[in-house]
Design goal:
The complex is a heterodimer of chains A (108) and B (176).
Chain A (H helix, E strand, L loop, with lengths): L3 H20 L4 H8 L3 H8 L7 H10 L14 H10 L3 H17 L1
Chain B lengths: L2 H13 L4 E4 H7 L10 E5 L3 H13 L3 E2 L15 H5 L3 E6 L2 E6 L8 H5 L3 E5 L2 E5 L2 H11 L2 H22 L8
Parallel strand pairs in B: 2-5
Antiparallel strand pairs in B: 1-2, 3-4, 4-5, 6-7
The chains are: A mainly alpha (108), B alpha+beta (176).
Chain lengths: 108, 176
Amino acid sequence: MTDVFEVQNRAWSGAVVKRARLMAKLTQQQLADAAGTTQQHVAAIENGRRQPSHPALARLLRAAGFELRTRLEPFDPHDETIEEWLRAQPVDFQQRWAEHQRMIVSSQ
Amino acid sequence: MTIEQVEAIVSVLDRHKVDYVMIGGIAAELHGAKIARSLDLDVTPAASRANRERIANALTELNATLRVPGGMPDDVKVHIDADWLERVTTATFNTDHGPFDLAFRPDGTDGYDDLVRSVVIVRVGAVDARLASLEDIVRSKTAAGRTKDELTLPALIDRLAAIRADQSQPKQIPES
């Protein structure tokens, strides 16, 4: 089974950039212009095809009027228990669920 | 989690007259947000003693067992009753209808009394589900700030904007 944490972490920076852009009511082109990059680069980050460095991420967020702040929290095992539950389900349920996830991700 | 499982859990909560507001990914999806389906149903129950007793009865009917990393050891039995629920702020269960979680005070909120002010009723199969508003779900997920919350926020903000745009449209008066 795919490591869900790995998948989530790879998608994280793109989601942060997209949220900042939506909150700032900017198009990808407008954000790219403000950050001194290209629309294609912003799109690639938002859909997870490219992983920005921390400075590059900060630059994009600043261009949208935001900054990233950090706090460390104790690890929450909630998703591990959900993964364990899923692995205990019938294979056809796991396959249908995985297919549903793929459909949602590919439509975004 | 399937919609049928959501319906089944909500019908048990209703049968036991539990005061609750649904939160999390399932609630967001029922608001129309296009996000990956959650495998667990999250609710915020009212924290009163009477409601904790009702929740405990509902959990019994759902055959709820604690969901912990690595599974519960066979020799550990936890009796889930109102007293036990008094001591927790969050609890995760496996039930006959899938994973079911309680959060008495979700991040960024003051709990049931805070969320119920803008509750939204949505039909799920044959039952009415009581959802936290999408604004409150966004508020809570933003405050939680976990990676998985961040992944859903763009879709939730998109959906919120669509709902607001729809509400701002003048409604046509049907012709008589």
